[in-house]
Design brief:
- It is a single chain.
- The chain is an all-alpha fold.
- It has helices at residues 2-27, 34-64, 68-73, 76-104, 111-128, 130-139.
- It has one domain (2-139).
- Helices cover 82% and strands 0% of the residues.
- The chain is elongated.
Amino acid sequence: MLDLSLAIAHHLLVFTLFGVLFAEFIVVRRGMSHTAVTRIAAVDLSYGVLAGLIVAAGFSRAMFAAKGWFYYSHNGFFWAKIATFVVIGLLSIPPTLAFIRWRREAEAPSDAQVAAVRRFLWAEVLLFALLPAFAAAMARGLGEFA
């Protein structure tokens, strides 16, 4: 039952994180208002919280669930998934800092500022697509090494 509970929690958190990322991707557009900036800064806070919960649920699953740490620690797709998640996390830092800066400013961000943040959001969305591919390969026993 622990394995099932952790799997469900992990998957729901990942889907929710993608929803938050996609919301940022949709809302952050040229001509966005200061009100939109305030909203997206609040949404972005949940992005960080969700990422932390995903790491906690994922590593709990890897250590305490059915397959155990040995299975995951000896799988290249597991490490590719972790590395991709870390890169996505690092790519999320500049947008977060921009949202904080924009929220403090009295006026809405310029189109150039928005375009710079959107490049990071694009990269995050594209890399996010690799996560389920790596998870599917890993679940089928691919990528094992001794």
